[in-house]
Fold each of these.
Amino acid sequence: MKNMKTLKYAWRFLIRSKSYTAINIIGLALSLACTIILVRYIHREIQVNTHCTDADNVYIPLRDIDGNVFPGSVGADNGADTIYFQPEAIKERSYFITSCNDNVTIDEKPYAVQVLVADTAFFHFFNYPLKGKRMEAPEEALVTREFAKRVFGDKDPIGQTMEYSGGKHLTICGILDEPACKSSLTFDVVMNLNLKTKREWSRMYIELLRFMPGVDVDAINASSNVYRQTSQGFRIRYDFIPVSQLYWNKELAASGDDPEIWHYSSRSHILILTGVCLLLLMAGILNFVNIYLVFMLRRSKEYGVKKVFGVQGRTLFTQLWTENVLMISIALLLAWFFIEVFAGYANQLLESDIPYTAFDWQLSLGVLVLLPLITTIYPFIKYNYLPPIVSIRSIGGSRQSVATRTVFLFIQYSITLLLIILSLYFSNHLRFLQNTPPGFRTTGILYTNLVAVSKNWYSESNEQKNKHRQNAQSIQQKLQECPFIERWFCGNPTRSGIYGAGSTYALINDKDMKQNVMMMWVPVDFFDLYNLQSIEGTLPQKVDRNSQYLVVMNEAAMKIFGYTRREDAFVRGEQALWISMGTDGKIIEGGLSLMPVEAVIKDYYTGHLTAGKKPVVYMVSPNSMGAQYQIACKPGKEKEIIAYLKNARQEIYNTEELDYHWLEEDVQALYREDRRVSTVFTLFSAISIFVSALGLFGLSLFDIRQRYREIAIRKVNGAQLRNLYSILFRKYIWVTGGATLLTVPLSYYLIYIYTKDFVVKAPVSIFIYVIAILIVVGISLGTLLWQVNKAVRINPAKIMKTE
């Protein structure tokens, strides 16, 4: 009964103070909505790969060969010359490989697929919802729900067959649904590792290891993560990392191996979003507490009288807590309404489809339990220990109350100004990245999987090889005849594309200077297709034999080798750069003799602009055969070329399915995190401005109303309008000025920390500070102006009678 009376009293008071209640609830709801959206996204990111059982104790060995890092396995056939652990230290292990942009045939129609080839133990490590039965026999395969819908529509795919390289016919035995968490490994089809021998797969196995309890993995890493020279001439080391850290690994992300299957992210990106989240939540809470203190000041006489009549601290706390719970509950419901309404935009902004999970109600419950306690503590301490006589006399006019509200407003303004400055810088930095020419052609470059050939085509029969060769020749004839194509060549974009990762090799010049440098293997048409500019020498137009390669360098590579003239430049490999077979059947190790540099090209950005222009050596080879093609399209003919290629596929393969994307999409993807950070800062700083304006409106509504009597007396004594404006605006100008003095150096320091490792970055312009200050001052003055105008035009006689 007593609790119901407290609840009714709290509700009645909130209804009476409807203006302040509305301001408080709307401001907190907006702040909570933005915070919850970011927290849900951050939670989903840090929960990546949690469908792996005990992900912190399942390890993948990273094999580092002369600076080239990729996931692998440990064994003598993989270069390991040392036993890092005993067999009995392993509780369970699994092997798998990935095959990006592979091909399967279903109902005589080819489909480009991302393939995971794994043994049956793989699903002891990773849990996927499964419809059907587990993969057991070598000729059985699993497909994902998305791939099944793409190929079979609403038809049940279980029991259907598909053909893979070497004439292998696979029976689909089950459908895999997406795991509840996000995965760093995505695929379309799962095949059994026993379908072929290791030699036939011709890919390096990747190993999953679950160690026995008590095994010291740190001690294993201390031994394995040291370079050792192998008998083949290269250096190798291993680093065993847990699956839980796989998503954040910078070395693997930089290698760019099978990017359609392996996915990575950056911890710095999550830290930035976490900072935005905390700042916005703090701004919302400060605004809420500040407005609530205005509530309290209007009731200080009431609390003083109650304390005179013996009200205990527990009763006061219960009343304050109940009022806060009511307002926060309404704000939380309103926040979830905003989240639901703008869910599509939020998912598009964060480029992540965030499902509703148990974490959502746990988060809401945490907000509902903790936030009322946080917002109640200060008002309770303030009024519980305030002497009744002081509370009765002040009725909102105490200097301490004014100082407290001013401090809260100062912190809130500092947060808002900091968010605006950072959002302006990140927006400027993003424009700088997107508008700086990368040094090569980006428009009209098409990457497409045209030839339906498996990655393991060389293990097929001669009849199948001849069929693939004929189909490839037919495709190439179609490309030659296409009026919408300027030029083309066959090559995997992840290797021979303009953003190809390449590999690190140790090269030695004619002065025995050794440099570890990025090397790319490209066909002769690479330079013309991307409009790369030669500044010395002549770019190769033809390479005579498959066993011959020509060397091209960029300016940065010439510089690190100490060359100023192309004619003087010669390099060779520290070990064989390629291996071929001579006409007599003998193995030939190439690249060990000094090779002249045929041409020098102008530097361009090989990746993210902030990494700068890197030294690159190009080994130019003849055009090769394969599934993927890079095509330069004539301007304005993008739609026509896609239609043309689909018709060509229909004619040759009886399907119009075409797997393709544009280089411009890769450029956009390169700056995805920069764009996300910029947009989040811009949007949330705008919301912070709105929340701060709401808070300022509520505070000024009370503060200026409290000074009506003072204004009236000053007007009677002859004060002019400019004097009154100066008096009423003074406090807020000081608050804005103080916030500016704090946030300008703080924001500059944060920008410096963020960009200190960038080779290329947008300059910090004074204009972003000027614009940010003008925005805050303009909105503040706009918020205050109506109330100040109303106050300075009051009738002194009327106020003296009523006050």
Amino acid sequence: MAGPEGGYALGVDVGTSNTVAVLRWPDGRTRPLLFDGQPITPSAVFLDDAGLHVGRDAQRLAQGDPSRYEPNPKRRIDEPSVLLGGRDVPTADLLAAVLGAVARTAVEAVGFLPPAVVTHPAVWGSRRREVLSTAIVRAGWPPAGEQGTRLLPEPVAAARYFAEVLRRPVPVGASLAVFDFGGGTLDIAVVRNEGTGFAVIGSGGVAELGGLDLDAALVDHLGRMLAPAHPQAWQALAHPATAGQWRSRRQFWDDVRGAKEMLSRTSAAPVPVPGIDQAVHLTREELERLVTPLLRRGVFEAAAVIGACGLTPSQLAGLFLVGGSSRVPLVARLLHAELGIAPTVLEQPELPVAEGALAELATPRARAVASVPAASSATATVTTAAPTSGPGLPVSSIPVSPSGSPVSAVPGMSVSPAGPAGPRPPMGPMPQAGPMPPRRPLYKRPVLWIAAAAVALVGVVAAAALVLLRNDEVDFQPVAEVGRIPSDDTQPYYVYTDVVGDRGYLAYERSGQPLTVIAVELATAKELWRVQTESTAARWDGISALPNAVVAFQSSSIPSDQTRDMTVLDPADGGQDWHRLIGANDSVYAFKDVLVLVDAREQRLLGLDLKTGKTRWERPNPGKAEGLTGTAVYPVQTVADVSGPANASGRPFAPVADDDQRLVQIGADRSATVIDATSGRELKKRTNVANPSDEVVAYNGRLLVAKDEDGYRLSGYDLDIMGEPVNLYTAPEESRRLDILAMCGETRACLLDSAGSDSKSTELVAIDLEKGGQLWRKPAPGATLLVHFGEEVVARATSGDYKFRVFDPDGNETLTREGAVGRVNAGNLLLFNEISSYADDYSVAGLHVGSTDVIEMGQLKDVKTESCSWNTTHIVCAGTTDFLVARFARD
């Protein structure tokens, strides 16, 4: 253990509402630090002439002057400063005050400040982490860094606790979902065991849904009960005017919160009401009726985040509930009922993040001993299941599809809004006024689709995209708003966008309602039509737009024996052409006038007429298979398929559906069958080619198969004859493992490989597909995503330092920058400072192929960048309550 004082260490979880710190003694014992005798301290800050006060002192002082009080500094992370008592106080100073209180308490406990790890939300980009780093220094802690104060994503800390303290099995390659339900926010993440540690592969949440919102629902309910019979008493609580009334209000909210917590243990709880002689009673039934609509939003968001990683809940190694609000029994029950997986929740769910962070400060020896436990023979079945359609069911932070990823039901990503408004908890006397893109499966899951092809090895999947056609430079211009399209809902549950040609498609949902779909003309932001689907659903997976259809999918996060609706709309007027019930694990691939349905339950392929939905042809899956993993399907991609606009995960916005009409089906008997998708006719077949779980790419007349044998080996087949395979490449060392395989040129493939699961050992390799062999190999530490444009390739890290690196045709690294990239066309990229599901102002820039000059274009205002779609001149994104249409280039 690091540190000069005998092995003490400190883990700190600065939450939106409360802060927790856990101290580890040299003998391995862990105990939470006590603040005023309590293991939790409010994250609140109060400013007076003596300086900044924190915790319960701040709460008490706020009763005298609420204008000097900030209850949730973490929520103000995007603001440079906060106005307290007429003074602008830097947000970093507010966080520093909280961390300073933790430091003083630690020094009182052990006599010095031990080495520490401070956690942060997984969705925080570099800007927010920099504010936290500044706060750490201002609090008197060692600077953030490997040799100083460590920073760690909160879900990674929770996963370390789950695996190393609870000793729950999370096999290498398997994933754990973390549901962090605190007082002020809900954060959800999926983390994967990489062998050397955990990595975040997907994250989301509801920014303003937390325990305070549950309290507000209860207060609102009590108000409706009390106001008619006791109007004066309720008026004093709802709109306090004196210091005494403010104290009563705060006590009332505290009592409501206490009753809520009591109802987790009993069926009824009293609530004393100031000004009324008799206490009122709340029952657990009332609590659950009132908060169920709020909690369902969290459950739906969990399903969306899991699905966006290309996973089903049954494929997870566990679902871990942390955060104080997780102790409400209904949270676990709803998650279990909706997702079909029993969550793990502790008696003190506030502690796991802080205690799990301590694992980062283990000595190398301790790390080796206490590393993430692999599955024993009794638990080895808890692994990531093979997908129904091959790698089309990704398992990565940027979920991946095979060379023909299913057409996405969620072109952007399902993005949730902030929580609904309600009674505000008492923050002291608050003022009354407030200021491969390729032919993706038309449907697989709410995932972020990759462009070219991808492979998943031992549960490690990443994404790849490529651009090979024209290199014309886009005339990038400063971002200019064209218009904003209202959603007709103050805060819709989930929002989606897609773009085909010069038309944008927008969609939003409300729980248990039809999906609203809107078509807009991008050049003018003119609304062309707005319709609602004929079917309703508790959750949707969104839309996928094709040149001649718009397809809407109900959620796949349902039990495997249930069905959901797929609705096909006419892009001319939004009218429903047809609909069909499909299974939870089914995939749909789009061709010129046919949708190919991979029917997992019946183990068959169906060719559905795109206009009528009638079955044109049917083929049983080759070979006998158990369960839902008996086949993999790969539409054959062309250069055109992977050369147009594509999002930050490689999902194309304008698929080319009228070029190569073939698909390749890999059967449970290891056969590879080349099929005409329009007729279902078998064109070629070869035995002993690949397993459905192998890594396969079908592109430009070739079938590439990667096998993990003494390292890995890449073989190629000519799709026209399916003759003997050609050995294209063999890993130079047995320790090298294939992470990503993608086409990155008409006759060139690019791949990422690494030594074992060490992401720092990742390298980028270019392969000659005509002659075979390696063209070049370059370091690409931490890269998990490839984007090819023109003759250049971008290797991007989707965790860690979040940097991308641009390599020229000879493998020279020409540009390194933090953020994300999306393809505009074969010669141009859009650069984003961050891809996020939270509405904010985000910077965007342009880059031409062959250039290192980044063209800054300003900011997209009030958008969720995870939802954005674009063509070569315009971009559309979901905002807090509406959709933005903006221009970024001249025609």
